[in-house]
Amino acid sequence: MPRLDRLVAGLAALAALSLSALAVAAQDLQGAPLAYPATRRDATVEARHGQSVPDPYRWLEGDPETDPAVADWAAKEDALARRYLAALPGRDAFASSIRALTDIERFSLPRKAGGRYFYLHNAGLQDQSVLTVREGLGGSPRVLLDPSALPRDGALALDDWQPSSDGALVAVALQHDGSDRREVRVLRVAGAVLLGDRLTDVADVPVAWTGAGGFLYSRYPGTGGYGAPRGGAGVWFHRVGTSQVDDLAVHTTPDETDLGHRAWVTSDRHWAVIASTRGLTDKVSLRLVDLTRVARDGWATRMLVADMRDDWRFVEGIGRHLWFVTTNGAPNGRLVRIDLLRGGRVRVREVVHESASTLEAARIVGGRLILSYRTGGALRAVVTDFRGRPRSQIALQGIGTASGFAGRPGDPETFYTFSSFGQPPGVWRLDLATGQISPFALPHAPFDPADILVERHRYPGKDGTMIPIYVVRSRQAAQSGHGLPALLYGYGGFDISINPGYSPERAAWILAGGAFALASVRGGGELGEAWHEAGSGVNKQAAFDDFIAAAEWLSASGIARKGAIAAQGRSNGGLLVAAAINQRPDLFAAANPDVGVYDMLRFDRFTSGRFWTSDYGDPADPADWARLRAFSPYHNVREGDYPAILVTTADHDDRVVPAHSFKYVAALQSARTGSMPHLLRIEHGAGHGSGRPVAQGIATEADVLAFLARFTGLAPPGSAGGKP
């Protein structure tokens, strides 16, 4: 493999560049001032709780497909951004680098059913991965479904697949233009034939087969329109070979639209477990359906956990015993077994008690428990017996993320993936009888992973709390003694952990001589539920403070060159970046808020927004409204020198509607925010991110990296010998 021997050649010269040489004004590359599209400013105000807040760009909430004024404005903004980005030096070099780093064979975790192994495979640059099957572990691969070969209007991706227990059928979830609403089809494995079943408005949770004849799935009520508020998904039963109109409602709550429901089925198909949540919290109630009595009693449900005070994550069921990972009495999680006794009584037994590490998940495979723990943002897996007594610990190949470990009681094996910042994801097989780990499918990185240095640090937040952060550089760049152009990424919300893993675009940044930093700010799930609560709701400002402190620490530590930090975040991370820019624009040279939430006074009125009040607060509540008003990016754009900002969104995003980005960019361009460019790039035929064709993703990321590199002084790939 080529090494990075010349990667840092010229770093000293770059470090000597003056800030004035890096400061590129809001002009095109020929020196002409950028002329932003004219944007109508109305006298509209948001009047609530006795206060009035100007909302001059509310008209941009209109549907671009039906509102000519919005469509015209968006088209002009996108055209301006694409002209600017196409002319950036190094844009094509970044595209070539990302393409080379993407062009590696990729496999999903296999799912075993009826002696067959089902998995997704991508040869490297295929726009969409294809569903593949092996007859037995050593069988030859056979393609079952290539979504690119299906008739389509726009982008079509295979989002999920669930084989029936006998491996004869597969329920496949298809995603159109990145929408959160899936279409489920049924595939007969023999002959690779799609049957006539076609289910629409399906939620993005896996189906649960009750047997070869049918499955449970979650479905949104109604089809909705652009930006229409989305109700919670109910659980339905579909019998293979019938029409969706004949499906049976198992558990729906049409009068409580903020409730959502999903189902699991035990591997012995004795019980269906239905979890209900309000919004996006992890506080759930549980119901059971005795599948052995459906023919006699219908889809009658039995309450198992009535209150919504704790998380209950289903693990498995065997006979009248059900296992769950719960935060009940254990904020870091514990494993319990619920015994279903006669007369409707239950008994809860603790199997694995709470520890200092967060118990993320558990699996029952063969005669073993596999427990996944998180400590300081890193993952480890432990194999125990049914009483929780450790048998072995799975050794991971460095700082990275291991996930998977799926299987059923009686299976002799399980599979997991491992990925790190410098290692593309590989699939490994664990023999539970012998403990032997062997490769199932391993890609070959187009560079030597040993040349990438991954470090874990902690830095002090504003209140003194120590925040975990990963810093990734080439070893030679780290040893050069020079600060580097740094790309700082954060998320900080909804108890979601952003884990170490391989990303072609981040690798391209690192190979070009930059530093990448991932800050595990409060609000995420990296350190458990307490960490989440410390950065959400009334504590949301702590997430922004942590991100700001990360930028300060990178500069003070000498990891980042002074004045050369770029900020990036997606979705809730887009909010994080935009809020941090408003509060400390001096810290950043450039920023990429992607598909973010920027209007915090009206976010609950569109698509899934009503479910986010659990993390953000409710604009209908006066106290919450005041807090939201204080950090809402759209409402807090101030006069002063802002960094260069590239806002990215997608025209079919039905999770965070593009209106958020439209209004925020209009506010940036109309305010006196300095001479840097503030641009809007719109992805076409795409949604919130998943299902995007590979070629489209490469083009987008090349634009973003070229923009961030331009204003941080990062040399294009290859110019310093870092070409992979």
What does this protein structure show overall?
The chain is built from 14 helices and 39 strands. A hairpin with a 5-residue loop joins β9 (169-176) and β10. The protein is globular. It is of the alpha+beta class and 724 residues long. It has an eight-stranded mixed sheet with strand order 32-33-35-34-36-37-38-39, sandwiched between helices. Strands 3, 4, 5, 6 and 7 form a five-stranded antiparallel sheet that branches. Strands 8-9-10-11 form a four-stranded antiparallel sheet, with no helix packed on it.
Keywords:
724 residues; alpha+beta; eight-stranded mixed sheet; five-stranded antiparallel sheet; 14 helices; disordered N terminus
Task: Give the SSE map.
Layout: H1 11-15, H2 19-22, E1 45-48, E2 51-54, H3 68-86, H4 91-102, E3 106-107, E4 111-113, E5 116-122, E6 130-135, E7 141-145, E8 156-163, E9 169-176, E10 182-188, E11 193-202, E12 208-211, E13 214-219, E14 234-239, E15 248-251, E16 259-265, E17 271-278, E18 284-290, H5 294-297, E19 302-305, E20 312-318, E21 321-326, E22 334-340, E23 346-352, E24 358-365, E25 368-375, E26 378-384, E27 390-394, E28 401-406, E29 413-420, E30 423-431, E31 437-441, E32 452-460, E33 466-474, H6 475-479, E34 484-489, H7 504-511, E35 515-519, H8 529-533, H9 540-556, E36 560-570, H10 572-583, E37 590-594, H11 613-616, H12 622-631, E38 644-650, H13 659-670, E39 678-683, H14 694-712
Parallel strand pairs: 34-35, 34-36, 36-37, 37-38, 38-39
Antiparallel strand pairs: 1-2, 3-5, 4-5, 5-6, 6-7, 8-9, 9-10, 10-11, 12-13, 13-14, 14-15, 16-17, 17-18, 18-19, 20-21, 21-22, 22-23, 24-25, 25-26, 26-27, 28-29, 29-30, 30-31, 32-33, 33-35
